[in-house]
């Protein structure tokens, strides 16, 4: 087997199922969205929040969000800007607008209940392939391949023999995920959660803990001598000094104010007028900020 081949263990894909799921049964974190009382809405909220954001940052915002908006209709009844305000500093605040849009659609089309049907989930605004599969699997115990960054990395190493997956999900990865998916719904749902947790806690990006991995002996990457990544350099995302940082500073002012804000107040948050104007224009274009006729600014739909 070469480091670039895609294979399954000699015993077949089922050889991975039991050790990974048994490990998960012993080591899964007690996260609020995994508890029965979270329901499908709690799962959906968590999936939106966890995109590109670590669990420890999500937990307090998630708890506050569900306390304020325990059902989709509760969120839908509020202005979209209140979702942006409650999003706080989780980053990528367009996710808040998308979650608000999904909540409105759920309230309008599905009687306020997160739909079970995978196609109906996909039809919700802001819900893509990954989120629909995750909600269907984790909330409703259905059989769907769930491919987040952690799962893709586990599959890349354990089965394909490469250190990292491609930058974007490929058709080959989707095919592999379907091949590895257990046949019955219950086991498939558990497998999805277990592989995600394995990638988050053990098969991590920088320093995988192979000694604690339940499938270390079956891992193609480890068996090949853990060859180094041969693709394009994987650079971490920068933040300081970027338009993202400026957007965050502008939004922070608007989140903290419960009345429209003068332009001069926004101008005070960043020294570079060109970059500041570009960031503000981006926020307006994305619908995260509204400009009133008198020249003041506010979060969308707020007082």
UniProtKB/TrEMBL annotation:
Cofactor: [4Fe-4S] cluster
Domain HhH-GPD: 49-201
Catalytic activity of the protein: Hydrolyzes free adenine bases from 7,8-dihydro-8-oxoguanine:adenine mismatched double-stranded DNA, leaving an apurinic site
Source organism superkingdom: Bacteria
Alphabetized Pfam families for the sequence: EndIII_4Fe-2S, HHH, HhH-GPD
EC number: 3.2.2.31
Keywords for this protein: 4Fe-4S, DNA damage, DNA repair, Glycosidase, Hydrolase, Iron, Iron-sulfur, Metal-binding
Keyword Metal-binding: yes
InterPro entries for this protein: DNA_glycosylase, Endonuclease-III-like_CS2, Endonuclease3_FeS-loop_motif, HhH-GPD_domain, HhH_base_excis_C, HhH_motif, MIG/MutY
PROSITE patterns, A to Z: ENDONUCLEASE_III_2
PANTHER family: ADENINE DNA GLYCOSYLASE
Family: Belongs to the Nth/MutY family.
Name assigned to this protein: Adenine DNA glycosylase
Species for this entry: Streptomyces cheonanensis
